[in-house]
Amino acid sequence: MNTLVIQNLNLVYANQHQALRNVNLEIGNGMFGLLGRNGAGKSSLMKTITTLQKPTSGNILFNGIDVVKNPLEIKKHLGFLPQDFGVYPKVNAYDLLHHIAILKGIKDASQSKNQILNLLEKVNLQEFSKKEVHTFSGGMKQRFGVAQALLGNPKIIIVDEPTAGLDPEERNRFNTLLSEISEEVIVVLSTHLVEDVRNLCSEMAIMDQGEILQKGKPKEMLVQLQGKIWSKKIDKNELVNYQSQYEIISHQLIEKEMHITVFSNTAINGFEVIKPSLEHVYFHCLHAKTLVS
Ligand SMILES: Nc1ncnc2c1ncn2[C@@H]1O[C@H](COP(=O)(O)OP(=O)(O)OP(=O)(O)O)[C@@H](O)[C@H]1O
């Protein structure tokens, strides 16, 4: 079992913007979802875990070793799929993986060749090994990104917003691949898509303005909202009125009719109770934060 322990992590950028505020997390093998809107601090946390940048204070322990002091300890076990995965133009998939294998310290030529061929098969790109990577579709590039992240048999894989820009079919294929590889390694998935977390992750954290607002198992978070989510169809002109009275966690126009979803510990006249979803957990969590601050 691998472990990633993050303790009291703070990050203040040179312009004095505090991107991480006292972050504490414990992550084991499997898929961990880090959910937050744009600017929440997810990439800042990912880059700090991968040691691309140093935190202002706090600790990161990978399998018990302090990686801020010993960055190599995580780097040699790390696969990283960053948000903007740049590729060199005019280089085919096989050659680019070969180049990355050398950068990762895989020196043995036959070992490198075997790994590359296996990985191309795993991500279903074996037919395209001689095709230039910059000509790949978005989904193919992301799968190529997974292949490069898996080179060298990492114990921890960090993926930052991996499904942005993928069509639904590519997203499904990509997500299936991620969940297959997560059984024996840690996969940290940063995303603003609740759906990806719901489908894939057994543990999650919700982040906003550099802080972890809530963490745990999605299933348990859903149980906590049982019997507290209420829905009603209203006239859209009444929305402001309802907003002043209730904690509206979402409103949606469905076939020109306004449906509101409200958090309430007790029954509300005229509303029907509905089954909580992870979207409700997320929006309630963000809303509760706005009420406190
Ligand atoms: N190098 C930097 N210097 C100063 N501020 C930064 C730097 N990088 C990020 N920020 C700021 O820190 C905050 C968190 O950014 P970060 O990229 O970590 O968020 P995010 O959750 O990954 O969002 P996104 O999905 O949009 O990338 C933002 O307000 C951003 O503008």
Automatic annotation (TrEMBL):
One GO molecular-function entry: ATP hydrolysis activity
Keywords: ATP-binding, Nucleotide-binding, Transport
Pfam family, one: ABC_tran
Keyword Transport: yes
Nucleotide-binding among keywords: yes
Stored SUPFAM superfamilies: P-loop containing nucleoside triphosphate hydrolases
Domain ABC transporter: 4-234
Similarity field: Belongs to the ABC transporter superfamily.
Protein name per its UniProtKB record: ABC transporter ATP-binding protein
